[in-house]
Amino acid sequence: MNGPADLLFNTKFENRPLFINQLDLVNYLLNTPGSRYHSGEILSELDLKRAQSRLKTYISQLLSDTVYRNVTEDFKFSLRLVLAQLLPAPQVDRVFSQIISALELKNSSLAKKTEPISALEDRISLKEDIIAARHIVVVSARPIDMTLPLNEEDHSIRSWFYRDLVTTLLTPGDHSKFYRFNFPTTTYCDLFWAGLEKLIVKFVLRLSDVEDYIFSHYHHSFSITPQTLHEYEEYQKEKPSLPVEVSSRKSNTIINKIAREIIEQAERNKTILVFHNNHPIFSIPIIGVNPNESSIKVYGILDMENNQHSAYKFTQENTILWRIFFWDKLKASDTGECISYKKTVSRSSPDEVL
Questions:
Q1: Which of 11, 207, 218, 235 is deepest in the core (most CB within 10 A)?
Q2: What is the pLDDT of residues 26-46, one digit of tens each?
Q3: Residues 70 and 207 in one domain
Q4: pTM more than 0.85
């Protein structure tokens, strides 16, 4: 099977290679209307160079034989649009599948070399399981309370679960961890999305160097758009002359915008999906870790009298039963409705946000 770089730059389709080089591919992705990387607006020369630079870095790593980079849904969607411009319609799906398969095969070979062996760690704690997991399923009959502070000294299950979730989203680069939340009503789904947005805003506002973080996230990810970065830079220029209240309001507006863009990208790339299920699947809150793998672990979260929570790890037998009679059936029935994130109205101050 040809490697991804060979398919993109060397193999001839319609008597010519698809792209001359990586920069040519980058420019197609940036300039094709509808592409996830297309700004929709005329960019300044500086913003265009920035967009080219960060996308070329991603493409280089994606094609590298020594670097593992996720093939994101944004990239897949955009590449298919580009191929539809370059190839006859009957060839688009075949060529697209060849390229994506080659990229995933490359990643698979690297993952096998670097993935730690943990099959024998039967008694690993829930916290360690969550941190090491690639796929986390949460099933809750109640809305998740996401108003708790992100306090490093708080060692409750909810606190460190939220920290892990938000840290995953805010770490620049690829997300190798995927979350699936299931609730019995659409209202609970909407409350989760709104709570997640507040958590991200809270986390960013507490960073010691917000500017450093924003630039790092822009250059190593694609969640922060060139327009938002430009808006932040303009704010930094005028900040010294602004009244404190106006400066705070503008800063919070931009941080809210960044939070929304991060969530939108995470949803597009299926890092986080939220489902409404109206079947009788809900009991105590359940966390399933890597439910599709042989290393699956399942925990029940029990309420204690002092308003604390305790984790109960399912036995191997109960874990198998949960997978057969709950998880596999849930996947096969395809009855859950995916509830999309809805942007909330921007708030003007941290107190209103939190």
A1: 218
A2: 999 999 999 999 887 777 888
A3: no
A4: no
